[in-house]
């Protein structure tokens, strides 16, 4: 799978087909690398979103768990079989995302035995500040 | 604690206030909470007629948030005097380890969280526990970390036209005075 | 293995896990912050894990001293009153 692939293009994310608090990926970029994938997902924090009205009133902050939501939606869109989250091995939230901020979540996705995926990710704001770091395990997916 | 009492303690509001009731609590030690899931939750609003039963699995992100809010209720109940959450402080979810999904919850299910507070160090709390639907365990939580931080230090509105250069990293409280040990 | 060695290696495992590195990557004197990019939350996690695993409470004021494995072991031993 290491054939010369041109730099993948950003494409708009498809509508989310499963239960989700919000569309947590606006644009997505996917490339096959060896046996795995590299995935990047971008999302702009919408301060008008009802979620942020409740988190928190008068002080909208993108909830840390929505980074996990971005992770789940990006994996379902990018990796064949629509893998589902099994374990968040480690996640750390390092900086706040406020309304108008844009987050880019870069994922390195490697196959595991038994069939599934080990994921490492870093989320950054546009200014390069790392907002979150994570490691997670996904199953092969309901469609696999 | 009922919904009104929970609302008085937690800063989150609809649709992200994700604890319905506290069924038992030993402050600073262990709490049991419930969150009922219905098909009218906002997270199902966008699903079309072609959605499968599996598409109705309640999102892991919201289950983690609900567990985290339960941990916050436990922590805040154990806090006294100046340790109570004030208007100028926020509880932030700063991290987790080994959160494992073992099952799913669907509309009609009542999720029960059992959360134990392990340690509080430097205004950072470490909680552990499980989430259940009836006799079915749907998640185990190795460790969830939350921190109490001044609002001003966490989320100043972006200054200047671009907001660039504003340091909004989440500072840890490592001062000798700020923290305390529970237990 | 002596009790001291066993506890030293147990501490190495705990800290390596928090720093998300392999046990053999964690040297005795490697600086947590400089060599392994540990931030203040990691330091707090190490303190909390020591508290949990060894039942030893190191005061928060000593956090800055926990710079490497050797110094951390010495702090744990001092507060636990380990003699060996």
From TrEMBL, chain A:
- Segments spanning the bilayer are none
Lineage top rank: taxon: Bacteria
Pfam families, sorted: ApeI-like
Q: Which InterPro entries match?
A: ApeI-like, HotDog_dom_sf
ApeI dehydratase-like domain sequence ranges: 38-112
Please identify the protein, giving its name as recorded: ApeI dehydratase-like domain-containing protein
Organism, by scientific name, is: Micromonospora gifhornensis
TrEMBL record, chain B:
The reply to whether Lyase figures as a keyword in the UniProt entry is: yes
Keywords, in A-Z order: Lyase
UniProt-listed Gene3D superfamilies: Hotdog Thioesterase
What's one Pfam family here? FabA
Q: Where is this region: Disordered?
A: 152-183
InterPro entries documented for this protein = FabA_FabZ, HotDog_dom_sf
Q: Mind telling me what this protein is named?
A: 3-hydroxyacyl-[acyl-carrier-protein] dehydratase
In its UniProt entry, the species of origin is given as Micromonospora gifhornensis
UniProtKB/TrEMBL annotation, chain C:
Q: Recite the UniProt keywords alphabetically.
A: Phosphopantetheine, Phosphoprotein
Which InterPro entries does the entry link to? ACP-like_sf (IPR036736), PP-bd_ACP (IPR009081), Ppantetheine_attach_site (IPR006162)
Task: Supply the Pfam families for this chain.
Answer: PP-binding
Name it: Polyketide-8 synthase acyl carrier protein
Does the keyword field hold Phosphoprotein?
A: yes
- Domain of life per record: Bacteria
The segment(s) forming the Carrier domain are 2-80
Q: Which residues form the signal peptide?
A: none
């Amino acid at each position: 799978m290491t054939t010369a692939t041109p730099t993948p293009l950003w494409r708009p994310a498809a509508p989310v087909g499963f239960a989700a608090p919000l569309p947590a990926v606006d644009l997505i970029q996917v490339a096959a690398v060896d046996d795995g994938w590299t995935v990047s997902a971008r999302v702009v924090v919408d301060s008008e979103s009802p979620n942020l009205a409740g988190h928190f009133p008068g002080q909208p902050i993108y909830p840390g768990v929505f980074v996990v939501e971005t992770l789940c939606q990006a994996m379902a869109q990018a990796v064949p079989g629509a893998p589902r989250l099994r374990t968040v091995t480690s996640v750390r939230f390092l900086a706040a995302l406020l309304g108008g901020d844009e987050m880019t979540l870069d994922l390195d996705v490697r196959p595991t035995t038994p069939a599934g995926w080990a994921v490492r990710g870093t989320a950054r704001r546009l200014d390069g500040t790392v907002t979150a770091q994570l490691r997670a395990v996904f199953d092969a997916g309901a469609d696999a | 604690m009922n919904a009104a009492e929970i609302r008085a303690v937690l800063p989150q509001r609809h649709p992200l206030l994700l604890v319905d009731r506290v069924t038992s609590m030993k402050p600073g030690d262990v709490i049991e909470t419930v969150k009922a899931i219905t098909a009218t939750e906002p997270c199902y609003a966008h699903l079309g007629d072609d959605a499968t039963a599996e598409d109705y699995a309640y999102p892991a992100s919201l289950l983690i948030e609900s567990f985290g809010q339960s941990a916050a209720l436990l922590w805040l109940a154990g806090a006294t005097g100046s340790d109570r959450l004030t208007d100028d402080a926020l509880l932030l979810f700063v991290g987790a380890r080994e959160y494992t999904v073992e099952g799913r919850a669907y509309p009609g299910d009542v999720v029960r969280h059992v959360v134990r507070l392990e340690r509080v160090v430097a205004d950072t709390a470490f909680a552990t526990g499980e989430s259940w639907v009836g006799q079915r365990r749907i998640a185990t939580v190795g460790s969830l970390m939350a921190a109490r931080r001044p609002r001003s230090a966490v989320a100043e509105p972006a200054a200047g036209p671009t907001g660039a250069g504003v340091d909004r990293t989440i500072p840890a409280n490592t001062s000798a005075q700020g923290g305390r040990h529970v237990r | 293995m002596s009790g001291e060695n066993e506890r030293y290696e147990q501490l190495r495992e705990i800290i390596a896990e928090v720093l998300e590195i392999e046990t053999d990557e964690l040297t005795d004197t490697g600086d947590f912050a400089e060599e392994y990019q540990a931030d203040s939350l990691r330091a707090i996690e190490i303190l909390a894990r020591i508290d949990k695993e060894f039942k030893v409470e190191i005061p928060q004021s000593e956090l800055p001293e926990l710079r490497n494995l050797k110094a951390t072991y010495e702090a744990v031993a001092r507060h636990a009153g380990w003699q060996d």
